[in-house]
Write a structure and sequence with these properties.
The protein is an alpha+beta fold. It has one domain (16-141): Nucleoside Triphosphate Pyrophosphohydrolase, CATH 3.90.79.10. It contains two helices and seven strands. The strands form two sheets. Strands 4-1-6-5 form a four-stranded mixed beta sheet, with helices on both faces. Strands 3-2-7 form a three-stranded antiparallel beta sheet, with no helix packed on it.
Length: 143
């Protein structure tokens, strides 16, 4: 069914922050294989399909870009700064998962690499992912 809208609509994405437990927690990042921010580090994530929920999108994108499968995620928040994505108006819903230890991952799909980083030594992050990381850590510390 086709619709015509009087107002433009933003794109919707979902991102997934995966953090390990332990004395020296680590976070999973992907190195972007495409523009924007090609070569920069970011959370696994991407555009939501029309037939999935935001949660399903976050879980799917995580697996597509890293090979890591999770079943339980928790919402961090919604990020909607007007200029957060240079490709156009994009709103993301960010989620987190906590796992026991770093699992084997690999850069797949549009991710050039997937790698675990200690929380104490994060690289500069693409988009507004530093804001997302800050909010994720506040929530994870409450668990």
């Amino acid at each position: 069914m086709a619709f015509t809208y009087d107002y433009p609509r933003p794109a919707v994405t979902a991102d997934c922050v995966v953090v390990t437990k332990g004395k020296e927690p680590q976070v999973l990042l992907i190195q972007r294989g495409k523009e924007p921010f090609k070569g920069c580090w970011a959370f696994p994530g991407g555009f939501m399909n029309m037939d999935e929920t935001a949660e399903q999108c976050a879980i799917r994108e995580l697996e597509e870009e890293t090979g890591l499968k999770v079943t339980e995620i928790h919402q961090i928040g919604v990020y909607s700064k007007v200029d957060r994505d240079p490709r156009g108006r994009t709103v993301t819903m960010a989620y987190f998962a906590v796992i026991d230890y770093p699992r084997k991952v690999k850069g797949l799909d549009d991710a050039a690499k997937a790698q675990w980083f200690p929380l104490s030594a994060l690289p500069k992050l693409a988009f507004d992912h530093e804001d997302i990381m800050t909010d994720a850590m506040k929530l994870i510390q409450q668990l």
